[in-house]
Description:
This protein is α+β, with helices and mostly antiparallel strands and 128 residues long. It has four helices and six strands. It has helices at residues 6-21, 56-69, 89-97, 114-127; strands at residues 30-31, 72-74, 78-80, 83-85, 101-104, 109-112. The strands form two sheets. It has a three-stranded antiparallel beta sheet with strand order 1-4-3, covered by helices on one side. A hairpin with a 2-residue loop joins strand 3 (78-80) and strand 4. It is globular.
Amino acid sequence: MLDIPKETAARIVDAIAMAIDGKPCSAECFNxxxxxxxxxxxxxxxxxxxxxxxxxRTRALLVAYIVFSGGRIPLRGIEMQGTYFRPxxxxxxxxxxxxxxxxxxxSGEFLVTQSGWAFVAEALERLG
Length: 128
């Protein structure tokens, strides 16, 4: 568990989104409980996401997931003080389809791939 309150984590997510996308994160990414039924990626139902474009918001969320997870994003969500920062199903599906994340069922995690790290590097370089 990360020793960070939800309010501080939300400020970090919004700051990343503002820097990359120009607006705060619009989704409710935090929940008091983990994704119990989504510990198995097959239950996510997003592997065949129709969206092929990676929006700036999606890029910002990937950067935020990495900030809190180091590149090993639990399928059930990243546990913090009294909350879980949970990957959005559509965002995760797009990132998996693009090859920026892989799913490791045995560890119950999304893993950032080499192309995912390059994608994040590009996003951060654009900030300069």
